[in-house]
Amino acid sequence: MDPTLLKVSLLCYGARSPPDFDKGRCGGAGPAGGGYLVLDGTATPSTNVAFQGHHVRNSPFSIEKVGEECLLCQDNAPSIAVRLVERPAFLDNRTSEGIPVWKIASFHGSDAIGVTIDKNCYYWRNKQQCKFCAIEQKIKTHSGKSLAIKTPQQVSDAIEAAVESGFCHHVTLTTGIAETPDRGATPYIPILREIRRNLKTPVHVQLEPPQDLEMLGRLYEEGADTVGLHIESLDEKVKRRVCPGKPPDRVYFRAWKYAEKTFGQNQVSTFILVGLGEDPKLTDRRLENVTSAGAIPFVTPFRPLLGTELENEDPPNPSYLLGITEKAVVKMKDSGMKPNENRAGCVRCGACSAIMEVF
Asked: Which residue has the higher pLDDT, 226 or 31?
C-alpha cells in the first residue's frame, strides 16, 4: 500500500492489538488511546495509531509481536514490519521535587513531549465541553497518578529530563479553558519563563483565543515559538453542536491574523477535525480563509475516545480524510505556506495528520 494511504488508513481505523499490548494513555488532552508506529516511506517519523476504542474492533489492521519484531497485518494482505516507538526511559526519572516525570509529561511521536499544564476546563463545569474531548476524564481515572496542575519548576524539570535523554527536540504545552478573559493564557507566562532560564528547546503553546490578543505577543516574548488556536471544525453548525462552548469563527480568524504577525509565517496552526458530519464543500471553501488568515490547517480525523459522548461514533473514511488533506495542502501552497518550516508542536511532529506526506 502507498505509504501516505497507509498512514491515513491507520489514522482513521487504528489497529487491533494483543491483550498484553501497551494501548497507550486513557483520557487526557488530544488524540489519546494509542501509540506511535514508524512506517517506511512516510514524510514524518511516526504515525499516531489508535489501539483503544470501539471503532478499533472493526479495523482491518492488527498488530502482532513476533519476538522483538512488530508486524502490521492487514486483512487479505501481506504483513509488513513496523517499529513501535517504545516508552522512553526518561519518564521514570524524577524531578527536583522527587516526582516521576510521567506524572507531568507524556511522549508524543518520536521526538517530542507534551504537557497539559492544567487539565481543568471551564467548559466541563458548565456542561459545554467538546464532545470528543477527554481532558477532564483523566483527572478522574488517573486520580493520584498524573498531576492535574503543573508548576513552572515541574514542567521545566520534565523537559530538561527529556532533552538530556536525547529523546526530546520540541515541546507542546496545552491547557484546559479558563473562565477568565485570558482563557487560560496567563499561567503559561511563568512556565515559559522558567523553561527559558535553562533551555532553548522549541516550545508550542495551545490555547483558545484570549479576549486581549496582546496576550499572544506576551507568550511569544516569553519564549513560545509556535501557537495553536484550534477551531476544530470549519462548519459552524457542526462546531456549535460538537463544541458548544467555543467562540464564533470570527474570533479565530482575527486571532490567527494577529498571531501570524507575531510568531511569523508557518508558526500558527489550527486543528481541523474531519468526520464530525461537516459539509465537505463548505470545508473546502473555508480552508482558503484559514490559510489566508495565516494558520496552517492541521487536518486530522476525529477519534472516538472511550468515555466521551462520541465514543460510539465512527471515524471518517480514509479516502474522505485524504481528499480534505489534499485540498488543505493546495490552499497552503497557494498561500506560500511551508509546514515543514514549523518549529514546534503538532505540525512539526506530524504524527496525527498526513499534511506533510501530501505536501
From this structure: 226
Averaged pLDDT for residues 178-205 = 97
CA atoms of 95 and 241, how far apart (whole Å): 42
Q: What are the domain boundaries of the chain?
A: 3-358
| Cβ-Cβ contacts under 8 Å for 127 (sequence gap 6 or more) | none
Rounded to a whole number of angstroms, the CA Rg of the chain reads: 19
Q: Could you tell me if 215 and 183 are in contact, meaning their C-beta atoms sit under 8 angstroms apart? A: no
Confidence (pTM): 0.95
Q: Which three cell numbers stand for residue 329?
A: 495542502
Q: Which fold has domain 3-358?
A: TIM Barrel (3.20.20)
CB-based contact 143:85 (threshold 8 Å): no
pLDDT of 25 above 80: no
Strand 268-274 and strand 296-301: pairing?
parallel
What are the backbone dihedrals phi and psi of residue 104, each rounded to the nearest 5 degrees, phi first?
-115, -40
Measure the CA–CA gap between 104 and 286, rounded to whole angstroms: 37
